[in-house]
Write a structure and sequence with these properties.
single chain; 169 residues; 10 strands; globular; disordered N terminus
């Protein structure tokens, strides 16, 4: 059994990763700012919940991805609840649950978590900090830009792009 904390592993990313993260952050911040400037005020109010409920519906179910260091990550969204689990060598070594909400500002979609709780791992029972990230649904893939909107307090603790797929089995 792997007893090391999978969330605290550090990986050397090099300068190119830092540059890419900086460029992505600048694009996101620019997109958010341009959305505010380019969206004219309107008297017709469309409920944001309605627009966002469509994305939340599309996000429902199970998503998986393989981390660079051989771990399998699984996220399952049921209603507005998410369970995130890390598997190493076929064994669940970490898991947490939290409540999620999605929102949209112009072309930018934001996925936000509330404080949750660790359910598997050395810190089982402890609270998790809320975090948020930008995301995109693209032909059956869920693409997340982690660490661009918050201080880096999300799983993995670094800026990164994560692509999730629906499991085939």
């Amino acid at each position: 059994m792997n007893t090391s904390n999978p969330l605290n592993k550090s990986h050397k990313a090099g300068k190119s990763k830092a540059v890419i993260s900086t460029i992505i952050a600048a694009l996101v911040i620019g997109a958010l700012a341009s959305c505010r400037e380019a969206t004219p005020p309107t008297t017709e109010k469309k409920p944001a919940v309605e627009k966002n409920q469509g994305d939340l519906t599309k996000l429902q179910g199970k998503w998986t991805c393989m981390a660079d260091w051989g771990q399998r990550w699984v996220k399952e969204i049921n209603g507005n609840k998410e369970t995130f689990t890390i598997f190493s060598e076929g064994e669940a070594v970490y898991s947490h649950t939290h409540t999620v909400s999605v929102s949209k500002q112009g072309p930018v979609r934001i996925y936000a978590t509330s404080a949750g709780q660790i359910t598997i791992g050395e810190h089982k029972g402890e609270a998790t900090e809320p975090f948020s990230f930008i995301y995109k649904l693209n032909n059956g893939s869920l693409i997340e830009g982690l660490g661009l909107l918050d201080e880096v307090n999300h799983p993995g603790n670094e800026s990164r792009i994560v692509t999730w797929k629906r499991p085939q089995d």
